[in-house]
Amino acid sequence: MSEQNIADHYSQGQLERKILNALITLGADPEHLDPDQLATVDEFHIGGRKATVELLDQLELRPALRVLDVGSGLGGTARYLARRHGVEVTGVDLTAEYVEVATSLTRRAGLAELVQFRQASATTLPFSDGSFDRVCMLHVGMNIADKAALFAEIRRVLVVGGGLGIYDLMRVGPGEITYPVPWAGSSATSFLMEPQRYRELLAQARLPVQVERDRRGFGIEALHEVRARVARDGLPALGLHLVMVPDPALKIANMLNSLERAVLAPTEMICLAQ
Ligand SMILES: C[S@@+](CC[C@H](N)C(=O)[O-])C[C@H]1O[C@@H](n2cnc3c(N)ncnc32)[C@H](O)[C@@H]1O
What CATH architecture applies to the domain 3-272? Predict the structure, then answer.
């Protein structure tokens, strides 16, 4: 199954217009966006901004470090990194439409000097060796079959002593997964792996895991909160339902079910480049 099928899963052709229309409905000026207002739509992973903060706080960030966000999506994590930590961020993503939307939202939020995006696959990164001090990757590994190539590329672009923060859905028990889920319409584009296998491949790439955290409980709670809010207030103007088309509710329900049965768990790993 080619990477094109994965990019097709995420592409929709209308995304920027839909996001801007929603922002205008909320009274925002599309030329001067508040990055925090985007957080309900641009953090495309379980637990949203809270999960981002809790992962990145472990990477010992300080101003002027060079950070790569692998599979940067709409750029929420990259903009947060630049604003909160004053780092220079490069986002790389397979889906051309996401790169365009991320670039546009970043310009509209006044962050283009610190944050830029490139279209490329994480398994063939368009950067020279040792270009980055830190790398993060949130909910991307599930789409990448060749994780050995992925980790080799991440290690190549990191400096020795650089940190990698991963927050992926990993397989923690036996059982079927019902598709669609937010990252895949079928099992053909879903490449879930056990934490043990991540650890082995990361060690082989000279990125040994220093800290690991199972976030299944946190994830279940976060997804129940989202569903309760929608049941109470209806869909918000600006939300991930604009991104997860079609069938956002079904994708969330299937994902939540796999967490509740302990088949999958959102898992953090912090690694150190050797
Ligand atoms: C669930 S989204 C997460 C986006 C972002 N990290 C976030 O948390 O908001 C998965 C992202 O991974 C990207 N992706 C999938 N396979 C990729 C690959 N081989 N190289 C780069 N990006 C990839 C997709 O295009 C998509 O933007």
Answer: 3-Layer(aba) Sandwich (3.40)
